[in-house]
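Hey L., structure's done. Input below.
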Amino acid sequence: MKTFCARLWHDEQGQDLIEYTLMLAFVALASAALFSTAGSSVNIIWSKTNSQLSTAAS
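Output:
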């Protein structure tokens, strides 16, 4: 049992998969944060444009 645990501890197979998964999770969280702030910015721009078009039409 001791040798099994020692081999398991030193086994690095699958390490790349975990690193790529963590990197993908970080990119997904960063993208979600950027899209949430971009959504409010687009809403502000859309509102300003709409009010200027309404003013120009009247």
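The mean pLDDT is 85. The two ends are 84 Å apart (CA to CA).

-- N.
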